[in-house]
Write a structure and sequence with these properties.
The complex is a heterodimer of chains A (610) and B (306). Helices cover 73% and strands 0% of the residues of chain A. Chain A is mainly alpha-helical. In chain B, strand 1, helix 1 and strand 2 form a beta-alpha-beta unit. The chains are: A mainly alpha (610), B alpha/beta (306). Bound molecules: sodium ion (NA) (2 copies).
C-alpha cells in the first residue's frame, strides 16, 4: 500500500533555518503527536470493548461509532503529514521525462490539485454542517461533526502546503497554485459542458491528468470529482465530501492502523530478528540458502503483519546486506526481497483483503482462507524461481536439530502474534478489527518487554498513524469516483462486454486480468481494489466464478504490480532503503515476477476448473 | 440548461440485486410513472448497495446525490427519533396492525416530521417481522442468558437483548455468518426473507417466531427533487408509490414463504415461543426509555390497543 516516509530520501531541499521551516517543523510535530494520541485512544476503545464483552459479558453502546469517528479524526489530522513523502502516492515517472525548464510549471499544477482538494474538503465540509442534520443515535451528538473533522483536515492541508513551499523558497510558485486553485474552485459551478458521455469518464480523465502531473493521488481523485460537476456529475460538492467520509467510516478499516502498528513494533522490538534465525536454521543450508531464508522469513512475517511495505522495508534493511555479504549481486538481493514481500498482503492478515472486503461486501474471514492457499502457492513458485535463478552461492552450515529447536523456542513470541491474528479471526474469538487491536497490544507488550524506549514507541505510533491516515484518505477519496462509476453503471458495461466475448468464466478471467494489469500500472493497489473490485465482481459471479476465489485473484494480480514499473511501490521501498537504482531492481526482479505470474495463472486455471 | 424539455434522471439506490423486492419495487414505480408521464422521468436504479448503506444513501438524498430510495425507519431515526415507535419491540400484533398504525394519525404525524427533515414520503412499507435465530432451540427468554447476540448497534435493539441477559455484539451482516460459525456470536435476529439469503440456517438453524420487532420502512424522495415537481407530477408519484408499496409488501410475504421452505429443507427448524408474556416483559425497559421521546407511555399504549 504505502511506504513510510523514512524509507525515502527527502525529495526537495528544505532550508532548515527559515522561519517557515521552523513553523512547519512545529506544526508537523504537533500533528504527528496528536495523530499518535488519537491512535492510542482508538486502540484503547476497541480493547476496552473486547474486554467488556469477554470478561463482563456486556458492551458499551456506541463503541463502534466512536471508533469510526476517531478514525476519521485520525485521517484528518494525519493526512497533511504525508504531503511531501512517498505516502502522498505521487506518480512521478512522467514528470521526470519533462525538460528541466518545464518542471516548475508541472509542480505548480500538481499543487493546484492539492489546493482544490483542500478547498473542497473545507467548504464542502462546512456546507454539510448546515445541510446534513441528524443526531448519531449511538453517540447522541450531531452527525455533522464527523464530516467537520475532514473540513478541518482541508485547512491543515492548505497550511502544511503553504509552509512547505515557503520553506523550499517557492513562495511565488505556491501563490500561483493558490490563485489557480481558487479560480477553479469558484469557476467550476459557473460552467456547464453538455455532453452525452458519462461524467465518470471526465472524472477519470481529470484524475489521470493529476496523476501524470504527480499530484497526490487522493487529491487528484477529489479535485477530479469536483471538476466532473461541470460535466453533469450527479455528486454536488457536499455529497463529494460526504461520500469521502462514508468511504472511510467503516469499522473494518480500523484494522489498518492496528496492523501497521503491529508490523512496525514487530521490527523495532527485535522480535522479527528471531523469525530470521528460525528461518535460517530451517532452510539456510539448502542451495541459495540465504535467499530461501529470506523467503521463509517473509512468509512468517506475513502471518503477523498486513503490510507488504513494512515487510519490504524490514527485508531491505536486514537481509539485503547479508545476501550481498554472501556473494549475491546487490540488485538480485534487492529483487528477492521485493518479490517475497508481495506475500504479506496475500497471506493473512492483509490490508489489501480488508479493503476488498469493505468495497465488495465479501467476507474477510473467507477471503483470508483463500489468501492462505494463494500465498502458499506463490511462496512455492518463488522458492522454485530462487532455486533456479541463484547460482553457486556458499550455503550456510546445516543447523543441528538442537539449534533448530532453540531457534524455534526463541521465535515463540513472534509466532504468538500470528496465532493471535489468525486463530482470533478464524476460530472466531474476535472480529477482524478486534484481532488487529489485540495484535497491536501484543506487540506493544513485546516492545516494552524488549526495553524499547518511550521515544521509539511514540515514533512507531506516529508512523502507523501517518501511514494509515494516508491510506485512509485514499480509500475515502476513491468513494466519489466509485459512486459515479456505479451511477454510470460501468459494472453493467463490463458485464455486457463480457457477454459479447462469450460470457464464459475464461473470458471474464482474461478480461479482468488484462484490465487489472493495465490499471495496476498507474493506480495504487488500494485505489485499484476500491474502484475495480465492485465493477469486475458481478461479471465474475454471473460467469459462475466463486466470488471469494475471484477476490483472491484480484488481490494477487494487483500485488504483483508492486514489482512493475512505473509505480512499483515495493521496488521503490527496497531502492529507498538500499540505494540501489530502481531500474536495476526492475530488471533483476524479472525471474521472480514470472514466478508470481505463473502462480496467478494457476489460480485462474483453478477458478475455471473448480 | 433546459430542464423541462429533457428527461429527468432519478438516481435511486437498492441494497440488493435485480431479483429482490428492494430493486423490483423501483421497476414497478418506474413503469407506473412512465405510463402517466411518458418520457419525463428515468429511474436509474443503482443496485447491490453500490451507493452505500441506508444511512449513506439518506445522507446523499439530503446533500443532492440521490433522489429517491427505500429505507428502514431505524436508519432515519437520527433525523426523526419518533420513528422508533415503529421499531418498539412487542408492540404490534401483526402486519395489519402495523399497516393500520402507519395509515392513521401516527403515520401522518411521522410523514410530516420526515418532510421537515427533507424526506418526502411516498408510502410506508413492511420488511416483515424480525425473529430470533439461535444455534440451540430457545423458546423461553431465560434460555438466552449469557449468550452473545449479534445485533444492530442501536440503543433500542441492544437494550432489548440486554434485558434478556445477553451480550450484544456489533458485527456487519457480511461477517455474521462467519461470526456465528466460529462462535463470536451465538444468536441473532433477522427477518425471514433475509434469513435464507445469507444461508444462516447452516449456522443458526433454530428460528423462534418471536416477531419481536416489525421492520417498517418508507419509500422516500429527496425534498430538493420533490420541490421541482408540479402538482400533477407529485400526484402521480404519490399514487405510484402507494401501488409500489403494496407490491413490495406482497413480494416480501412471498419471499418469506420461499425462504422458510429453503431453510426447512436444509435442516432449519421453526419454533414457537413459549411464555410470551415473559418475552414481552423484556420490552418494558425499552418502552419506558422511549416514552419520553414519543410523548408519554399513554400514546404507546394507545397504539398497542388500536
Ligand atoms: Na500478511
Ligand atoms: Na506497478
Amino acid at each position: 500500500m504505502a511506504a513510510s516516509p523514512s524509507d525515502f530520501p527527502e525529495q526537495t531541499a528544505v532550508r532548515g533555518d527559515s522561519l517557515a521551516a521552523r513553523v512547519l517543523k512545529g506544526v508537523e510535530s504537533v500533528l504527528g503527536t496528536l495523530a499518535a494520541l488519537i491512535l492510542t485512544v482508538l486502540l484503547t476503545v476497541v480493547l476496552i470493548s473486547v474486554c467488556l464483552r469477554y470478561f463482563f459479558n456486556t458492551g458499551f453502546i456506541g463503541a463502534e461509532d466512536l471508533g469510526i469517528w476517531l478514525h476519521v479524526a485520525l485521517i484528518s489530522i494525519g493526512a497533511p503529514l504525508s504531503l511531501n513523502s512517498a505516502l502522498a502516492m505521487r506518480l512521478d515517472v512522467f514528470v521526470r521525462l519533462l525538460p528541466a525548464r518545464l518542471l516548475p510549471a508541472a509542480a505548480v499544477l500538481a499543487d493546484v490539485f492539492t489546493v482544490l482538494a483542500a478547498m473542497i474538503l473545507l467548504f464542502g465540509g462546512s456546507e454539510i454542517m448546515s445541510m446534513l442534520g441528524g443526531i448519531s443515535p449511538a453517540l447522541g451528538v450531531p452527525e455533522w461533526i464527523r464530516f467537520g473533522f475532514l473540513g478541518a483536515g482541508g485547512v491543515l492541508i492548505l497550511v502544511v502546503l503553504l509552509l512547505q513551499r515557503l520553506a523550499e523558497g517557492r513562495a511565488l510558485s505556491v501563490l500561483i497554485s493558490l490563485v489557480l486553485g481558487a479560480a477553479l474552485y469558484f469557476g467550476v459551478p459557473e460552467i456547464f459542458i453538455d455532453s452525452e458521455l458519462p461524467p465518470s469518464l471526465f472524472l477519470a480523465l481529470v484524475a489521470a491528468l493529476g496523476l501524470v502531473l504527480a499530484a497526490p493521488l487522493a487529491h487528484a481523485f477529489l479535485a477530479a470529482a469536483y471538476v466532473a460537476i461541470a460535466f453533469g456529475s450527479s455528486l454536488p460538492e457536499p455529497a463529494i465530501v460526504s461520500s469521502t467520509v462514508s468511504g472511510m467510516s467503516k469499522f473494518l478499516l480500523l484494522a489498518i492502523p492496528f496492523f501497521l502498528l503491529a508490523g512496525g513494533l514487530l521490527t523495532s522490538s527485535g522480535v522479527a530478528n528471531q523469525l530470521v534465525r528460525f528461518a535460517a536454521s530451517m532452510v539456510g543450508h539448502r542451495r541459495a540458502g540465504l535467499a530461501q531464508t529470506t523467503l521463509l522469513t517473509s512468509v512468517l512475517f506475513s502471518g503477523a503483519s498486513g503490510s507488504s511495505v513494512a515487510n519490504a522495508a524490514f527485508g531491505a534493511s536486514t537481509f539485503q546486506p547479508e545476501l550481498v555479504k554472501h556473494g549475491y549481486p546487490p540488485a538480485q538481493a534487492g529483487a528477492i526481497i521485493a518479490a517475497t514481500s508481495v506475500l504479506d498482503n496475500v497471506i493473512p492478515p492483509s490490508i489489501a483483503f480488508l479493503i476488498l472486503a469493505t468495497a465488495t461486501n465479501l467476507s474477510v474471514g473467507s477471503l483470508l482462507v483463500g489468501g492462505f492457499f494463494a500465498g502458499g502457492l506463490m511462496a512455492i513458485c518463488l522458492a522454485v524461481a530462487i532455486h533456479l535463478s541463484v547460482r553457486e552461492q556458499v550455503a550456510l552450515p546445516r543447523a543441528s536439530a538442537r539449534e533448530r529447536w532453540q531457534a524455534a523456542i526463541s521465535a515463540i513470541p513472534a509466532f504468538g502474534l500470528g496465532i493471535i491474528v489468525v486463530v482470533g479471526i478464524r476460530i472466531g474469538i474476535v472480529t477482524t478489527t478486534e484481532a488487529a487491536a489485540l495484535a497491536a497490544l501484543y506487540t506493544i507488550i513485546l516492545a516494552v518487554w524488549g526495553k524499547v524506549g518511550a521515544g521509539s514507541l511514540l515514533a512507531s505510533f506516529r508512523q502507523a498513524a501517518t501511514e494509515s491516515a494516508a491510506i485512509g484518505l485514499l480509500i475515502g477519496t476513491a468513494g466519489p469516483f466509485a459512486f459515479l462509476l456505479a451511477v454510470d453503471d460501468v459494472s453493467g458495461l463490463v458485464s455486457e462486454f463480457v457477454t459479447i466475448l462469450g460470457g464464459s468464466a475464461l473470458a471474464v478471467l482474461i478480461l479482468s486480468n488484462v484490465i487489472l494489469l493495465v490499471v495496476g500500472l498507474v493506480l495504487d493497489i488500494g485505489a485499484a481494489i476500491l474502484l475495480f473490485g465492485p465493477i469486475l465482481l458481478p461479471a465474475a459471479v454471473a460467469a459462475g466464478i466463486d466470488p471469494i476465489h475471484f477476490g483472491v485473484i484480484i488481490v494477487v494480480n494487483l500485488m504483483i504490480h508492486g514489482l512493475t514499473p512505473p509505480l512499483g511501490m515495493l521496488i521503490f521501498v527496497v531502492s529507498g532503503v538500499t540505494r540501489i537504482p530502481a531500474t536495476a531492481l526492475f530488471k533483476a526482479v524479472v525471474p521472480y515476477l514470472l514466478a508470481l505470474l505463473v502462480s496467478l495463472a494457476i489460480l485462474c486455471a483453478w477458478a475455471i476448473i473448480f | 440548461r433546459n430542464a423541462a424539455a429533457r428527461t429527468t434522471t432519478i438516481t435511486t439506490a437498492s441494497l440488493l440485486g435485480d431479483d429482490k423486492p428492494e430493486s423490483k419495487i423501483w421497476v414497478k414505480i418506474g413503469e407506473l410513472v412512465e405510463a402517466k408521464l411518458p418520457g419525463q422521468f428515468k429511474f436509474n436504479v443503482v443496485k447491490n448497495g453500490a451507493l452505500g448503506g441506508e444511512k449513506e444513501v439518506a445522507e446523499g438524498a439530503r446533500l443532492g446525490s440521490v433522489q429517491a430510495s427505500l429505507s428502514t425507519v431505524s436508519s432515519l431515526s437520527g433525523w426523526v427519533p419518533e420513528l422508533q415507535v415503529l421499531d418498539l419491540p412487542f408492540l404490534f400484533r401483526d402486519a395489519a396492525h402495523v399497516r393500520k398504525t402507519v395509515g392513521g394519525d401516527v403515520g401522518a404525524d411521522l410523514k410530516q416530521k420526515l418532510a421537515a427533515q427533507n424526506f418526502v414520503i411516498g408510502d410506508f412499507i413492511n420488511y416483515g417481522a424480525r425473529h430470533l435465530l439461535t444455534k440451540e432451540p430457545v423458546t423461553r427468554p431465560e434460555q438466552l442468558k449469557g449468550k452473545k447476540i449479534r445485533t444492530i448497534q442501536s440503543p433500542l435493539h441492544t437494550k432489548l437483548w440486554s434485558a434478556f441477559g445477553t451480550a450484544p455484539v456489533g458485527i456487519p451482516i457480511t461477517e455474521t455468518y462467519n461470526a456465528l460459525a466460529t462462535g463470536v456470536a451465538d444468536a441473532m435476529d433477522l427477518t425471514k426473507s433475509a434469513y435464507a439469503g445469507f444461508k444462516l440456517y447452516e449456522v443458526v438453524p433454530c428460528m423462534t417466531e418471536t416477531g419481536h420487532i416489525w421492520a417498517s420502512g418508507v419509500i422516500y424522495y429527496s425534498a430538493s427533487f420533490w420541490n421541482q415537481l408540479n402538482p400533477e407530477q407529485k400526484a402521480v408519484f404519490q399514487e405510484a408509490s402507494k401501488e409500489g408499496a403494496a407490491y413490495f409488501n406482497q413480494l416480501i410475504v412471498d419471499d418469506e414463504a420461499a425462504s422458510v421452505a429453503v431453510s426447512l429443507k436444509n435442516g432449519g427448524r421453526l419454533l414457537k415461543p413459549e411464555a410470551f408474556e415473559e418475552w414481552q416483559k423484556g420490552a418494558q425497559g425499552v418502552w419506558q426509555d422511549f416514552a419520553t421521546i414519543f410523548g408519554g407511555m399513554d400514546r404507546i399504549k394507545a397504539i398497542q390497543s388500536a
